Design the sequence.
């Protein structure tokens, strides 16, 4: 089974701190994604990456950056944490399928609940 | 602009009855639709998908129906069990330059009443 591991389940950080959220997958997936989940807003895509050193902005990239130096690791960086970044952060990975003939979805990690005080 | 909408934030169903979760979308370029289930403090897990060229896909107790003309899909769970209590997200897939992006709905919290 594919495993996506997020390094922390819970984090509490102060406003203005630089925050790193780490994600590692063990199945050689090309694609990796960072989402945040907020009540009433569902899952929103922050950044994604289709290959090492590649990154693409998602729907809500402001205040975030990412790093993908190795295929298995995708880091989300909050340059200067703010209270409106308090959220559940979810990392996901998937195989590159080209145009698939069937779809098996993304594999998600267990999430990191970040609280910024 | 919310391209994938789940208009019911919550739903309660008696154990053994049918649960029907609904989802609407606006982008006619979506080519796959997926349902995920999420328990508290866990990541979403993939449940079932359907291609835009089909109108039904079944997997055990779970069936997804797609009505392209109405831009509407639904997930049927029969019979509903207590372990089905979770938040359900629908998602839609679109390909741009050979790469895929999933857009999620806002979720529906399903509670199965014993």
Sequence:
């Amino acid at each position: 089974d594919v495993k996506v591991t997020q390094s922390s389940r819970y984090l509490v950080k102060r406003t203005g701190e630089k925050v790193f959220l780490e994600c590692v997958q063990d199945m050689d997936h090309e694609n990796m994604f960072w989402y945040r989940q907020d009540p009433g807003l569902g899952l929103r895509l922050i950044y994604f990456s289709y290959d090492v050193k590649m990154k693409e902005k998602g729907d809500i990239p402001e205040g975030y950056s990412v790093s993908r130096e190795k295929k298995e690791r995708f880091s989300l960086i909050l340059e200067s944490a703010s209270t409106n970044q308090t959220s559940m952060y979810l990392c996901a990975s998937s195989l590159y399928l080209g145009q698939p003939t069937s779809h098996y979805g993304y594999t998600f990690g267990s999430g990191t609940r970040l609280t910024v005080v | 602009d919310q391209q994938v909408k789940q208009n019911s934030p919550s739903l309660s169903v008696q154990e053994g009855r049918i649960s029907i979760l609904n989802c609407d979308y606006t982008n006619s370029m979506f080519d796959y639709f997926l349902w995920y289930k999420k328990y508290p403090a866990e990541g979403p897990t993939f449940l079932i998908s359907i291609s835009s060229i089909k109108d039904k896909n079944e997997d055990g107790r779970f069936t997804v129906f797609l009505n392209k003309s109405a831009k509407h899909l639904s997930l049927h769970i029969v019979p509903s069990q207590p372990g089905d209590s979770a938040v359900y997200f629908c998602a839609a897939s679109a390909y741009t330059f050979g790469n895929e992006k999933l857009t999620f709905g806002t979720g529906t919290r399903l509670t199965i009443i014993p």
About this structure: Chain A touches chain B at residues 4, 9, 31, 33, 35, 40-45, 48, 50, 58, 90, 92, 94, 96-100, 102-111, 113 (CB under 8 Å). The two ends of chain A are 37 Å apart (CA to CA).
